[in-house]
Design a protein that fits this description.
The chain is α+β, with helices and mostly antiparallel strands. Among the domains are: 106 residues, ATPase, nucleotide binding domain (Nucleotidyltransferase, domain 5); 169 residues, Nucleotidyltransferase, domain 5; 199 residues, Jelly Rolls, CATH 2.60.120.10. The protein is built from 21 helices and 40 strands. The chain starts with a strand and ends in a 6-residue tail after the last strand.
Length: 723
């Protein structure tokens, strides 16, 4: 009889499980450790805590089982991903590890995206730069703790550090390395292009090791500490989700798992590196050699149900004499309500969202709430909302060519017959379960068995060690059709509310005492109006802008001036922004802090700011029979040197000078001939009455010079906005 050890290195603790070579579990032990949160959004741990927990838990399971340690064929670690461990020349830890859940690196993510290019980063690594990943953490340390960075000689991930302590061999395991933002996913090696763009020395990154390969052997020191035999095989191991997939038997094309724990994960196996060009889901190298995985992560799956329990069922939760588990009560009540919860839909964004809408500002929503809805309706809506979010992610995987035949349900949600059936109906897929509940630890043990030679392949080990459960669910055709209709409306809600989520976050900050500030044109709220165009030579434009004199008062506008219309600049901007159209370059300058008017061009317009300036804008949808309410106007800050493209559906007018400035100059670029005089004899009826030029509509406030002179019949109602 041979035995295998699977170590599950988590964020709250490390669990070691001892298995027989047939998958039977003999003993387990967990050791907890603290999480350090020195500032809001920070999360760190002492790597020594992980090693000590691994040593203690290994020693304990050996003691519990009373087996001969010489019969342990191998060990592997499944670990929390993305954490940064930095070692000096002697292999000593330089600082506490920055964890996957640390969100301090938003600026570094933007830096990575600029340096590599958003599209190119996904082409190489398959993933956008996210605060959870490792590369932004490296840049943060280099920027804020330069002395530590200079002393660093090796960078490791959490489980790879513990394996190094057990074996004395440095290495970075492939599935975990995928989540660093530094790996070439297709080549399964470190990306020279990304490392060069970020100025990270490849010498800091140890060699890549496959998950089921022998990554080292237990040293004499580690043997003395753990009770294991010196020389015991240690496999590369895997990231926690990759290991959990193996622990549920997901190791072949067409297989996938859905985990309904605190978060919700759809994890699919594929034999090709399928990429989502929008980065909505993650593609990593699999723990199976020559294969890949695609995974999503919704942040508040089980957490949404826990919120419903605590909010809607507080007495049942606290009733120690209750004969029925509160979650069973919740699902049984939900089962009495028809699909769609009588017109109630829940968005499960309690903690923001990661997949497939990457939005930290998104929040939970009950849509359609009415007087007929009781708590059973709300509970049903919560269960459905969580499940619909998994369908949203599965749809993205389908777009990538990944179409699972069966899905293994894991986590607390898999134990509910009601939820299993809902999964089958919503996902339109057969749902099966596993007997074993130690997914990551069993997955690690499977890898250890392959490295030790007990099995020829990961697939063979999964077939022998993973036991399928009896519980399953088949999709019901009628309910599946109903859920397609429900999903269509569910899917439309986030895009509709995206701007409002962002504004809500700013409102909460102001209500909490934060000073009100103008949003910048790089913020999500501006995305409906336009975007910043990269690559324009704005420095050259600004030098020419400075040659233009300011008007003695008010605002001056010229659509075309020679000093700006440099042939080289015009050729570049014409191609880069306007698709080769002939353009004219003019300016708007002066002193202004009042809205006065909004204009609409039938073509997009590019503005380039000499100094920080403010622009007030509104959507074309704000126009109602030639009238606009100034309440629909928003104000955004344009930074000096930014080239901002306003969509042709955006209304805006003369810029304003920003706080602390006493004037503005703005280069205005439009297709040639946009600013033409009104032809004689053109009707003033209908929409033509709003026209002041052939391609421009003007909406003027009655108090403005334009309004007083009757230039346009398009009118701005409400208070004329003064900044």
């Amino acid at each position: 009889m041979a035995y295998l050890l699977g170590v599950d290195l988590g964020t709250s603790g490390t669990k070691t499980v001892l298995f027989k070579d047939d998958g039977a579990q003999l003993a387990s032990h967990t050791v907890s450790y603290p999480l350090k949160q020195l500032h809001n959004g920070w999360a760190e741990q002492n790597p020594a805590d992980w090693y000590n927990a691994a040593v203690t838990s290994i020693k304990e399971v050996l003691a519990q089982s009373r087996i001969d340690a010489t019969e342990v064929a191998g060990l592997a670690i499944a670990g929390q991903m993305h954490g940064l461990v930095m070692l000096d020349e002697q292999g000593k830890v330089l600082r506490d590890a920055i964890l996957w859940c640390d969100s301090r690196t938003a600026a570094e993510c933007e830096e990575i995206t600029r340096a590599v290019g958003a599209r190119r980063l996904i082409e190489i690594n398959a993933n956008p730069a996210l605060t959870g990943f490792t590369a932004p953490k490296i840049l943060w340390v280099r920027k804020h703790e330069s002395d530590i960075y200079k002393r660093c000689r090796t960078m490791l991930l959490p489980k790879d550090y513990v394996r190094y302590r057990l074996t004395g061999v440095l290495g970075q395991e492939i599935s975990d390395a995928s989540g660093t933002n530094l790996l070439d996913i297709r080549k399964r090696e470190w990306s020279e292009e990304i490392l060069k763009a970020l100025d990270i020395s490849p010498k800091l990154l140890p060699p890549i090791v496959e998950s089921s390969a022998v990554a080292g052997r237990i040293t004499a020191e580690a043997a003395k500490a753990t009770g294991l035999k010196e020389g015991t095989v240690v496999a590369g191991g895997a990231g926690d989700n990759a290991a959990a997939a193996l622990g549920t038997g997901v190791c072949r094309e067409g297989q996938a798992m859905v985990t309904l724990g605190t978060s919700g994960v759809v994890f699919a196996h594929t034999v090709k590196p399928s990429l989502d060009p929008l980065g909505r889901v993650h593609t990593f190298c699999a723990a199976v050699p020559g294969a890949w995985t695609a995974m999503s992560c919704t942040l508040a799956a089980g957490q949404s149900l826990r919120w419903a329990r605590d909010t809607l069922y507080p007495h049942e939760r606290d009733d120690k004499q209750a004969k029925q588990n509160v979650y069973d009560l919740m699902t049984s009540e939900a089962a009495t309500i028809p699909p769609g919860a009588d017109g109630l839909i829940y968005l499960p964004y309690l903690m923001g969202e990661r997949s497939p809408v990457l939005d930290p500002f998104a929040r939970g929503v009950f849509f359609g709430l009415s007087g007929v809805h009781q708590r059973a309706h709300l509970t049903r809506a919560v269960l459905e909302g969580i499940t619909l979010s998994q369908k949203h992610n599965l749809k993205v995987l389908n777009e990538m060519g990944i179409v699972p035949e069966t899905i293994v349900a894991c986590g607390g949600g898999a134990t509910s017959a009601v939820w299993r059936q809902m999964l089958a109906d919503v996902l339109k897929c057969r749902i099966i379960t596993c007997r074993n509940q130690e997914g990551p630890a069993l997955g690690a043990a499977i890898l250890a068995g392959v490295a030790a030679g007990l099995f020829k392949s990961v697939e063979e080990a999964c077939a022998k060690l993973v036991l399928k459960g009896e519980a399953h669910a088949e999709p019901d055709t009628g309910r599946a059709a109903q859920y397609e209709d429900i999903y269509t409306l569910y899917r439309s809600l986030y895009p509709t509310l995206k701007d409002s989520f962002f504004k809500l976050e700013k409102l909460r900050a102001r209500l909490g005492g934060a000073k009100a500030q103008y949003e910048e044109v790089t913020s999500p709220a501006f995305a409906r109006y336009g975007k910043v165009i990269e690559g324009v030579d704005t420095a050259a434009v600004i030098e020419r802008l400075k040659q233009i004199p300011l008007p003695p008062s008010g605002v001056a506008y010229e659509p075309s001036v020679k000093v700006l219309e440099d042939p080289k600049l015009m050729a570049d901007i014409g191609e880069r922004v306007f698709g080769g159209l002939k353009i004219e370059m003019g300016y708007c300058s002066g002193r202004n802090r009042i809205l006065n008017a909004l204009e609409y061009h039938r073509n997009s317009e590019l503005n380039i700011a000499e100094k920080d300036a403010l622009l007030m804008v509104a959507p074309m949808s704000a126009v109602h029979d030639g009238l606009i309410d100034t309440q629909e106007v928003e104000t955004f800050l344009v930074r000096a040197g930014q080239a901002v493209l306003f969509y042709e559906t955006t209304l805006h007018y003369a810029p304003c000078h920003a706080d602390g400035e006493d004037y503005f100059r703005m280069c205005v670029v439009l297709p040639e001939g946009t600013n033409t005089e009104r032809p004689q004899g053109v009707t003033r009826d209908g929409e033509a009455g709003y026209l002041t030029h052939r391609n421009k509509w003007l909406f003027a406030h009655p108090d403005s010079p334009e309004g007083k002179n009757g230039i346009s019949r398009g009118v701005l109602l409400g208070e004329n906005l003064e900044l």
